Amino acid sequence: MSVIGDRRSREQKAKQEREKELAKVTIKKEDLELIMNEMEISRAAAERSLREHMGNVVEALITLTN
Length: 66
What we know:
Blueprint: H1 2-24, H2 29-39, H3 43-52, H4 57-65
Helix pairs in contact: 2-3, 2-4, 3-4
């Protein structure tokens, strides 16, 4: 049981670290609105995509269209 608990704990910690790093990425409001309007997705989804692509709107749009 402790092996499963340790693994789950490590995965949770890695996920939290990833979220912290994504939160540090600055994104432009204009880019966020562009993605929301063009792709017709929620603000949260658009923001997540932009943050995952380090604020690069072109890369975010390419990923969303594929």
